[in-house]
């Protein structure tokens, strides 16, 4: 990954500033609602849903994870459709569809219905996250991408910082409309997705030349710069169909990056889905009592420092040049810290260690997502980013189901958290190995064996050779 970026021009600064103000907050808000909807089940389970539907830990884990199976089925086709039909139409369609499915959780009556709706929610949401990443990547040149994706990614930890207390507050309205508290929560977190989907249809622009809020000079600069960067990347000459898929699926880097992302997401969703349940377990483990709102606020604690860490880590990566240690370092910290939570002697100490893990995961993720677009462009980028995110969704299913299953089998979360640590350390090893391979390739000037899918693939190394 490159060295420190040169000074910017006035038109460049104004264009990036307008994108950061006009597009990024809105897409981040969409992501906020997206992540809240998919993780709402984690707040519902320990606050009445688990008891009302008679769910075991394994059943809850399966219900949490089956979402990702539905997502996986349509992820790559959905991102290819977004590239063909435009982000404005496709992201709006996704939001309205998932909002309707999410609304149906209000009336779920048994575990079977829960499984079906979670699967359908994954189908409805398929392509949203990689589509949002692709959309923003196609608006900003590479030197600004880490910063923009970092601002976008702030929505994810802030979803829990704000969403956990909001969920607790909604759950506290037990009896509203004759519904249990957890059903009230599902009702009110679903509506924003439908509303935002309708707004997105009219608010978003597919490309800089469609944006009336940019000056002609800004449009021309962005279009020219993005076109220059696309030259030489895998997919630059590929079409929409088989050629684009071949360019992405035949790129060895994409598969390594998919495995790196697998490790991060395994940790992310193990925390997201089971942290509220683990916190509920503090009452028995440490002989204490927490109200619904207490548990909601404790759940939110790790994510506020994580948002701060994410912001400053991406700023550092943007200012000094994104390097392998910006990704590998947090993976090592997260992999080593998460098992330590097992040995803490109080709720405060346990949450403190989990906070370190959350900071590590969220610091690395936006930096990681600046990497795929260094190698891929066009429809190949759509397919490649979707493939990487598909591996993340496999991790989401695996971490959710395996964590619950191992808890039922062993009676504790000990083995599950060690497994989280293992996968995160594996991510660190893989990204370092990829960087070393890229340096060797750059040193020899040979791309042989890259598996890039076409001779004009980018030779830009993952890390500057220093």
Automatic annotation (TrEMBL):
GO function term, MF aspect, one: transmembrane transporter activity
Gene3D superfamilies documented for this protein: MFS general substrate transporter like domains (1.20.1250.20)
Compositional bias per record (Gly residues), positions renumbered to this chain: 446-456
TM regions (residue ranges): 19-36, 56-78, 90-108, 114-136, 148-172, 184-204, 254-275, 295-313, 325-343, 349-368, 375-395, 415-436
Primary location recorded for the protein, binned into one broad class: membrane
Record's subcellular location: Cell membrane
Function: Component of the tartrate utilization system and may allow entry of tartrate and tartrate dehydrogenase.
Record's protein name: Putative tartrate transporter
Lineage start: Bacteria, Bacillati, Actinomycetota, Actinomycetes, Kitasatosporales
């Amino acid at each position: 990954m490159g060295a420190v970026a040169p000074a910017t021009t006035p038109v460049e600064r104004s264009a990036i500033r307008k994108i950061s103000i006009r597009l990024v907050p809105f897409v981040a808000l969409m992501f906020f609602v997206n992540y809240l909807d998919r993780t709402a089940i984690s707040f519902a389970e320990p606050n009445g849903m688990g008891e009302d539907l008679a769910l075991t830990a394994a059943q809850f884990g399966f219900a949490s994870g089956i979402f990702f199976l539905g997502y996986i089925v349509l992820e790559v086709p959905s991102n290819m459709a977004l590239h063909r039909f435009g982000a404005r139409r496709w992201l709006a369609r996704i939001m309205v569809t998932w909002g309707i499915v999410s609304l149906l959780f209000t009336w779920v009556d048994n575990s079977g219905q829960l499984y079906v709706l979670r699967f359908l929610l994954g189908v409805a949401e398929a392509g949203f996250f990689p589509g949002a990443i692709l959309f923003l990547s196609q608006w900003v040149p590479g030197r600004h991408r880490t910063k923009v994706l970092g601002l976008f990614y702030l929505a994810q930890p802030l979803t829990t910082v704000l969403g956990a207390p909001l969920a607790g507050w909604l759950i506290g309205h037990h009896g509203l409309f004759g519904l249990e508290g957890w059903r009230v929560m599902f009702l009110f977190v679903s509506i924003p997705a439908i509303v935002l989907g309708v707004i997105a249809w009219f608010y978003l622009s597919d490309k800089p030349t469609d944006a009336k809020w940019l000056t002609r000079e800004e449009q021309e600069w962005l279009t020219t710069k993005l076109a220059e960067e696309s030259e030489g990347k895998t997919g630059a000459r590929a079409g929409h169909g088989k050629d684009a898929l071949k360019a992405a699926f035949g790129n060895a880097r994409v598969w390594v990056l998919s495995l790196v992302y697998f490790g991060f997401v395994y940790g992310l969703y193990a925390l997201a889905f089971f942290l509220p349940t683990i916190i509920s377990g503090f009452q028995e483990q440490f002989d204490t009592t927490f109200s619904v709102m207490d548990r909601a606020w404790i759940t939110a604690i790790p994510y506020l420092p994580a948002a701060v860490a994410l912001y400053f880590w991406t700023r550092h990566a943007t200012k000094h040049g994104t390097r392998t240690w910006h990704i590998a370092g947090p993976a090592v910290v997260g992999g080593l810290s998460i098992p330590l939570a097992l040995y803490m002697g109080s709720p405060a100490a346990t949450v403190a260690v989990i906070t370190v893990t959350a900071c590590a995961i969220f610091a690395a993720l936006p930096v990681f997502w600046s990497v795929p677009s260094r190698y891929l462009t066009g429809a190949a980028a759509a397919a490649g980013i979707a493939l990487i995110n598909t591996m993340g969704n496999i991790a989401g299913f695996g971490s959710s189901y395996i964590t619950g299953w191992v808890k039922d089998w062993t009676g504790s979360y000990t083995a599950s958290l060690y497994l989280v640590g293992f996968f995160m350390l594996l991510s660190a090893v893989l990204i370092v190995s990829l960087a070393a391979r890229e340096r060797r390739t750059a040193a020899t000037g040979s791309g042989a064996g890259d598996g890039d899918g076409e001779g004009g693939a980018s030779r830009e190394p993952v890390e500057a050779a220093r």
